[in-house]
């Protein structure tokens, strides 16, 4: 596969230097915005009649639980990850009514030399077309747990050596 060829051609020492400089950083604005949205939903539910208030509180709690799940998944990856370059295999566009507007499928070679595949949804402007390379964070103990840097909601990745990533 092209990913394996490209990774084989890269200078391994340069790749290691680049991978060592990657640092996840919590996106404060995302946390503040989503916390504010949940707080607004809970506060505004107090203004509703009792029958509608229960539904609004349940909706806010469901949204908060989903965000906590996403945060937990991202935090697990951000705490002990390795970096790989993944080749985008397909890019699919969705109707605007489906929430996210695009999805990529990608493959990458992990540190054990095996090839893994992944899929990620996101905003079109953040997902590249097929044959492009994207930096991916993956769990070295379970490389099936992976995610492209650009699709993290709560973390952003700062790194040197952007010519490699």
Structural descriptors:
alpha+beta; disordered C terminus; 7 strands; single chain; disordered N terminus
Outline of this structure?
This protein has 165 residues and is α+β, with helices and mostly antiparallel strands. The protein is 39% helix and 30% strand.
Mind telling me the C-alpha Rg? 19 Å
Helix proportion: 25-40%
Extended strand count: 7
Portion of residues in beta strands equals 25-35%
Mean pLDDT: 76
Calculate the terminal CA-CA distance, rounded to whole Å: 18 Å
Widest sheet, order of strands: 4-3-2-5-6
SSE blueprint and pairings:
Elements: H1 2-9, H2 12-20, E1 23-26, H3 28-45, H4 50-79, E2 82-93, E3 102-109, E4 115-122, E5 133-139, E6 142-148, E7 155-158
Antiparallel strand pairs: 1-7, 2-3, 2-5, 3-4, 5-6
Helix pairs in contact: 3-4
């Amino acid at each position: 596969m092209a990913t394996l060829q490209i990774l084989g051609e890269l200078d391994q020492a340069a790749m290691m230097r680049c991978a060592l400089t990657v640092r996840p950083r919590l996106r404060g604005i995302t946390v503040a915005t989503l916390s504010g949205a949940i707080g607004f939903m809970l506060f505004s539910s107090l203004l509703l009649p009792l029958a509608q208030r229960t539904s609004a509180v349940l909706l806010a709690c469901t949204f908060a639980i989903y965000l906590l799940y996403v945060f937990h998944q991202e935090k697990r990856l951000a705490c002990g990850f390795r970096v790989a370059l993944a080749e985008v295999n397909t890019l699919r566009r969705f109707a605007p009514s489906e929430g996210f507007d695009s999805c990529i499928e990608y493959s990458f070679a992990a540190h054990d030399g095996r090839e893994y595949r992944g899929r990620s949804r996101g905003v079109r402007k953040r997902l590249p077309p097929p044959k492009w390379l994207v930096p991916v964070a993956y769990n070295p103990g379970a490389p099936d747990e992976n995610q492209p840097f650009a699709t993290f909601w709560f973390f952003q990745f700062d790194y040197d050596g952007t010519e490699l990533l």
